[in-house]
Amino acid sequence: MSLQTPLKKVRGLGSAKDGTEHFWRQRLTAVANIPLALFLVWTVLSSIGANHEEMKALLGSPVTALGFLLLIVSGAIHMRLGMQMIVEDYISNEGLKFVLLMLNTFFAILIAVVCVYAIMKLSLGA
Amino acid sequence: MATPANRTGQRARPLSPHIQVYSPLINMIMSIVHRMTGAALYVGTVLLAWWLLAAAMGPEAYETMSSVLGSWPGTLVLIGYCWALLHHMFGGIRHFIWDMGKGFELQTADMLAWGTAVASFGATVLVCLFAFAGGA
What we know:
The complex is a heterodimer of chains A (126) and B (136).
Chain A: H1 6-10, H2 21-46, H3 52-60, H4 62-90, H5 94-124
Chain B: H1 4-7, H2 26-57, H3 59-70, H4 72-99, H5 106-132
Helix pairs in contact in B: 2-3, 2-4, 4-5
């Protein structure tokens, strides 16, 4: 038995079951992604024509590495939320939706982990 | 199986009007493109991961990556990715304006939609000019 009143249980939760959390996180990461996306474009432009040594130095430098780590975390959260919305909008079959939402999370985490690993390797040596 | 339509003897009617019954408006096209560029950016993160991983793995992996992304088809994909990123960014700024409760007047909304298109193509052209001039 719960001591919460029925109102307390549903407050902030609509039909989506998680209140405005999805909306808010989408917006929060979107704000962060504006400077981070511009940083990505700038870094790619800076890397044109670089050989491997120069690229390693560029991507491994503290400012670039930290920028990428921020971009990867914010971007992965944002893209997972966005793809979740697309799946929920277009896939009506419950089973398929469940599988796709799971794969969506796996994909976002896989991309994030691969990118973080690469940045760590570039900036911390080895 | 009896459907509601033949039970009542009426012909099946569409349940709700969808995209195909509307003539295209700039706002709706920008909305669709916003979602499409979002999905494209999602898939394209594989390229970002490959780029970073190749640089981390060593000269050979880096050479392979550079030769693929530096080829003509690769360059086209990168230009497309750049445009998708910028379009999604400008479209996102348009959504922020709406989130703050502003810009819903028809003329303003149309202007924001055209602005998104113009800004994304304009910025992409600038980035390309910069890139082909040798980069930063």
